[in-house]
Write a structure and sequence with these properties.
single chain; two-stranded antiparallel ribbon; 79% helix; elongated
Length: 401
């Protein structure tokens, strides 16, 4: 700023001196070069100098403009200006988001060297190639992304996700485990690993990962609670299958030991109680299961537990009947409870009452289990026509599921 001001002042001084000299007299300017001379008045000389300076300034502007124009033409011929490339990349990302893989890959790959932060575009282009079935091209783009950005984590994550999409879970885990060692407790890595373990039904690995996930706060509290319940139920299911290999006398203590290892909060969850009760029933411990289910339903109503209660083979069926009758007083229109009562009546050989309860349940809610029970009961009673009708109704319910 100061330099420009000094130049302006200097220029004005020169102009003032020239005007002063011109006003004082005509005067003249003589230029001699060898044998040639040029002579003119000072006024003419001033005009000539002004014209020369103006010509130099104009020539400089033209040259500068030409260079800029040449640069712009070069960019346009290569694939457009930077601004155009940015817009093209943005529309490519929109195509990617809406699933137009061909357009997305075309636009993104052609503008990768034009955008300031190309990593996201590389990843999107790789995913687009994968969706088009070109896995080799997807891998090639990811290799370029790694070379350009040197960002191992996002490239590894997208690689793993592509393997997950193709259901190559072991390949995905083999990519994620080294990353987890290098950069432990990365939420995105842990989250993807936990989804892979669920898909693989690898409950032991997921159980080992669970505390690490909780420390890294990968999920919300509600999601952690749901995952903990899932782990507990699956553990009980696996344990139940293993317990079947033991002697009958050893089964109840084994299942009780696992149940007691759960926290009190888990023991109150109806899904976990259901898994425990089923494990008991599968291992011929129906009497113990009946107590567990009855107490649980006294605290919290849960339809799957009600349905299980009707399948338990306890010695004192009359106790079960009285319990269900008391529940029916409070819930006379409960379809699952009516189905349970029908099963108990059938087991007690009260065929007509069983049929009545099954029909009442079916009137409340069209359920496959109810129509199947009615079909079996009608076969038992010799009414094969009615049994066939109920089996046909069951097939319709299966088709509409």
């Amino acid at each position: 700023m100061k330099r420009r001001l000094l130049k302006a002042v200097f220029f004005l001084l020169i102009v003032a001196v020239v005007i002063f000299l011109l006003v004082r007299g005509d005067g003249y300017l003589l230029i001699a070069y060898g044998t040639k001379t040029i002579e003119m008045t000072l006024w003419v000389a001033a005009i000539v100098i002004a014209l020369i300076l103006a010509s130099i300034w104009l020539l400089r502007q033209l040259l500068a403009g030409g260079v800029e124009m040449a640069r712009r033409f070069r960019e346009i011929f290569l694939f457009g200006s930077v601004e155009r490339a940015q817009k093209r990349a943005a529309t490519g990302m929109v195509d990617y988001l809406v699933g137009d893989w061909f357009e997305a890959r075309k636009k993104l790959t052609r503008t990768l060297d034009k955008v300031e932060y190309p990593l996201a575009n590389y990843l999107a282009a790789a995913r687009s190639s994968f969706e088009m079935g070109d896995e080799a091209e997807a891998e090639k783009i990811l290799e370029k992304a790694l070379a350009v950005s040197n960002s191992e984590l996002p490239v590894a994550l997208i690689r793993a996700r592509l393997h997950v999409q193709a259901e190559r879970y072991e390949d995905a885990i083999n990519i994620l485990k080294p990353i987890d060692i290098k950069m432990p407790r990365q939420p995105a890595v842990l989250d993807l690993m936990h989804h892979i373990y669920i898909a693989q039904k690898n409950w032991r690995a997921l159980e080992e990962l669970f505390p690490v996930m909780r420390k890294a706060k990968v999920l919300s509290n509600v999601e952690f609670d749901e995952l903990e319940i899932l782990l507990a139920t699956e553990k009980m299911h696996v344990h139940s299958a293993q317990t079947k290999a033991l002697l009958i006398a050893e089964r109840l203590p084994t299942l009780q030991k696992l149940w007691k290892s759960f926290s009190r909060s888990l023991q109150k969850q109806p899904q976990v109680i259901l898994a425990y009760a089923r494990a008991l029933a599968e291992n011929y411990q129906d009497q113990e299961a009946e107590v567990i289910v009855r107490k649980a339903l006294g605290n919290q109503w849960y339809d799957p537990l009600v349905a299980l209660y009707g399948r338990l083979q306890v010695k004192e069926i009359h106790t079960q009947l009285r319990t269900v009758e008391s529940w029916l007083k409070a819930r006379p229109q409960d379809a699952t409870l009516l189905l349970t009562m029908g099963r108990l009546m059938e087991r007690n050989q009260q065929w007509e009452l069983a049929r009545e309860y099954f029909q009442r349940s079916l009137n409340q809610k069209q359920q496959l289990e109810t129509t199947a029970e009615l079909a079996r009961l009608m076969t038992k009673l010799g009414d094969h026509k009615k049994s066939a009708e109920y089996y046909q109704q069951s097939l319709l319910l299966v088709e509409h599921k």
